[in-house]
Amino acid sequence: MNESIDRLLVLYTGGTIGMQQSAAGLMPASGFETRMREQQAGEPGPLPNWTFQELQPLLDSADMQPRHWLEMARTIREAATQGRCDAVLLLHGTDTLAYSAAALSFLLLDLEVPVLLTGAMLPAGSEGSDAWPNLFGAMRALQAGRVKGVRLFFNGVLLHGARVSKLRSDAFDAFAEAPRKRSAAVVSERPPVLLPQQPAEVVVLPLYPGVGAAQVRALVASGAQALLLECYGSGTGPAGDADFVEALRTAHGQGVVLAAISQCPGGHVDFGVYATGSGLRDAGLISGGGMTREAALGKLFALLCAGLDQHQVEHWFCRDLCGEMAD
User: Fold this and answer.
1) Whether the domain at 8-177 and the domain at 202-317 fall into the same CATH topology
2) CATH homologous superfamily of 8-177
3) Active-site residues (predicted)?
4) Fold of 202-317
5) Among the four residues 126, 240, 263, 327, which has the most C-beta atoms within 10 Å?
6) Any idea which residues carry the catalytic annotation?
7) pLDDT of 84-115, one tens digit each?
8) What's the pTM value of the predicted model, to 2 decimals?
9) Which strands sit side by side in the sheet containing 50-59, from one edge to the other?
């Protein structure tokens, strides 16, 4: 258990939780700190002491980009290392909340300060909104010492930051953890500290009937350093397409990291089950096991940003670093 929180940093990035109506529709709005303090006056304690910081510009999370992950990680790390906080509550829009939670799980892998993300399906102040229950529920989870690492709090449930996905857009229980079928092997090696040194370009390629070499070559030509293939079932794909396989093999030979996850929400990559899986493995793909898209994308991004080479990225991608592969 973590100790009681004395200095909480509330980091506000935008999102539905603090949005207000405009002529064009709901938009992120400043002034949320004042609204929080007014609401807290009627909330039962105990709640931690907190300071408030806005990241500018405030974003609808549909506009969130990998560079914003780096900005959030840098802001959180600076506040923690300077002793300005012993916990962080990050307010974020729901559309890409799971992606940010996963990316921060790896970008802040070495950070001892707990980081909890939350948001809302309806803006604070709207009738029946989940905003204040999510926000103050998250504060209470931190105050009670229930949070370790990067986690997400939503609809009264504490969720693993690198195992969660948004499954619904029309209900308060919008987020769920990926199912866990077995525990991942414990990593005996000390994982690297993933301090960003350079930008990274990771591209997701869902497999579908008709995908081929042209798509692979176009993505590599666009500057992709890693291709995350969302394969069928247990890690299969069109291994009978010689041009597709050769495009993958060529990309790998050029230094592009090739990783595979399953399209199935409860899927797990095991290349050895089918010949169409082992054919992809032999072309250079590595297995993401049962990782979610959000976790695999964030993990590849963090590993590449840290300046690791292809071999090092492949080595660490296949190892469980924070519970992301426990399925």
Assistant:
1) yes
2) L-asparaginase, N-terminal domain (3.40.50.1170)
3) 16, 94
4) Rossmann fold (3.40.50)
5) 327
6) 16, 94
7) 999 999 999 999 999 999 999 999 999 999 99
8) 0.95
9) 50-59, 8-14, 87-91, 115-118, 150-154, 157-160
